Amino acid sequence: MSSTLSLESLAALSLDPQTSPTRTILVEPAVEGRKIGEAQRRAKTVDRLKDWQYIECSLHRMIAGWGRHFTEWSDIATCHRHVWEQSECVRRLRDRLGQFPGAAQSMDAPVSARLERLVNTALLAPSFEDALSGMYQVLMGALCKSYQLYAVSAHPIHDAPTIATLHEVIGFHEQIRLWLREYRRRFPHTIDAAYKAAIEAELRNCADLLEALPLESECAAPVGVNTDFRLPVSPGRPAGSLPGYAIKPYLSADFQDSIEARRLFWAYAYMLEMNLAIDQLRWIYDGHFMPWEFLQDVSRHLWDESRHGDSGYSRLLDFGITIPDIGFPPYEICNGEKSAEKKAGLSIHSLANASGSIAPLSPKEIYDAVFFIGLIAETGHFVVKRQAYDDFLEGGDLESAEMMLFDIIDETTHVQYAHRWLPLLAERAGVDNAGYKERAAKMRQEAQQNHHENLREWAKLPRNAANPDYAKYQELLAIMREKQPLFNEKSCPTRDPLPM
Ligand SMILES: [Fe+2]
Ligand SMILES: [Fe+2]
Fold first, then answer.
1. What is the distance in A from the centroid of ligand 2 to the CA of 476?
2. Radius of gyration of the chain, Cα coordinates, nearest whole angstrom
3. How far is the CA of 216 from the centre of ligand 2 (A)?
4. Global confidence as pTM
5. Partners of 232 in beta bridges
6. Secondary structure of 12-50 in the HEC alphabet?
7. C-alpha torsion angle, residues 165, 168, 109, 285 (rounded to 10)
8. Which residues of the chain fall short of a pLDDT of 50?
């Protein structure tokens, strides 16, 4: 059960915080005969904020760490929104911390190793469902209680900015906890008693987060780095994700000449971007060697890609096309099982059913991923996306046009993230980043050439009703045409090919 104070008891406490018995003065008293030291010139709030920030950062990583276990489409998308919201909680605490003198030193200053033991205990849940309860009920509950008690005991005028910050953070957590209530109706679960007791014991060891913890000889490392916690190699997928048909080669082959193919392509390709968001959970969990601002940007990037996935799927659903109809394959196999097997020795089944854990991404691997996504994939697609936007607008499909437009807005920012972070990522990964823009331009050219070679292969694919892949492709086009014909289906000009 939640350990949050009831609203009634909080209302009673907050009637008059200045005279309330819970009123806390946030400066240390002077000691007779002793000079006032630097620490006494600092509000106690600073150390509270540092501890809270550590726990919020830890929850952020924990959500990313466990997030690959979700299997239902809506839960996967919600988890990605939680990653972003949790990063917003951290940002708000950091913003408030930054308003106190000496913020530059205190912002990322060490905190007690007792906090690390607490978050590692919550991280090491016996199961995924236990982890959700441990993170969202037990740990977040204790945090909210800590915020609420602070908010009713701090001076309501002097320290109003901290109180306002905490209310904002509580608001995010309340949304997450409401979501958990709804999730538990679908997936009932009682938290493992020993696991819950272990977190509660660590909470007591941390004074229930009701006061700042003094630094000991050892200070806290990021959650998880001193544990053997690993992410699952094969992320959860909704039922029906394994595609029964390989339609992408046809979509790519017809991309230039058919606006109908382009419309189906973009809804499907956006849906597949959920794969990127799922991958980016690893950037966050394994990216602890980077400054917080990097993780903040990745959180937004991840949430955007998840929204692009959801945009694409919602557009397919507008036409009545569901995941079991079209599949939601990982990128490695979306061009058809055969070609993927040829390329990487993989099969749909080996990929989707692989069990076990995945090794952490090295700094070099994170650098490569940011480089590829930002400078090859995202930079490379702007031209064809803008063309699609114009064509859908002219064809009278405003919903599809709108989907393109919001994606283009997000993608413009994503490319900026890559330029912002590649130099530091390179430094931390020991990679030479010199001439990275030229290197990227060359790689985009190579990707285009590879695509042209693939197109020559795909042009030979059978195009008759007896071929199940082609028949399915035609069926999907017909469903969309029937529901919303495009005015410019005949008049739309030939467009650029896909960049990869
Ligand atoms: Fe995207
Ligand atoms: Fe993007």
1. 26
2. 26
3. 42
4. 0.92
5. 357
6. HHCCCCCCCCCCCCCCCCCCCCCCCCCHHHCCCHHHHHH
7. -170
8. 1-5, 7, 11-15, 337-350
